[in-house]
Amino acid sequence: MICNIKRITAVDSKIDSIFSELSFLRTEYPEFYSWFYDKVVPELSNGSREVFIAQTPLSFGKINGVLVLKNTNSEKKICTLYVDKESRLNGIGQRFIDIAFNELDTDKPLITVSDNRISDFSRLLKKNNFEIVDSLSNYYSENHVEYTFNGHLYLPENVKYA
């Protein structure tokens, strides 16, 4: 599948479309709206966040995948890696991993995966030598476990959704 990857800026007209494509995550991550609009979008301007989208030439504007990275001195993290169901198994996820390795300048970025998505990611994580480090109960969402790979999550007690 031919797929174009595009870097998104804070003023890009696709910001709301990206949120819409990812809005299903609000059920798993209750603070998702706030995280996206209060952290990700503003931090695109200072370079500590990066967003990429995948689109096929025939998708007519539809977003086929989204990658959100946090790139700071203290944290190199894949925050969101999403490929829509119709586009999976076509190499988009691997292209996103390759972009993450390059942009974050590491082959061991932090990523977390919820228990109800771990089977979706297991092949990609194994192929790229991600190592499970921790499992956190009720971290982002009640009654769910968040698995961390290649590092630990450290947040102040009153902060949710880094």
From TrEMBL:
Keyword Ribonucleoprotein in annotation: yes
Gene3D superfamilies, sorted: 3.40.630.30
Protein name per UniProt: Ribosomal protein S18 acetylase RimI
One GO cellular component term: ribosome
SUPFAM superfamilies given in the database record: Acyl-CoA N-acyltransferases (Nat)
Lineage, highest ranks first: Bacteria, Pseudomonadati, Spirochaetota, Spirochaetia, Spirochaetales
Keyword hit for Ribosomal protein: yes
Keywords: Ribonucleoprotein, Ribosomal protein
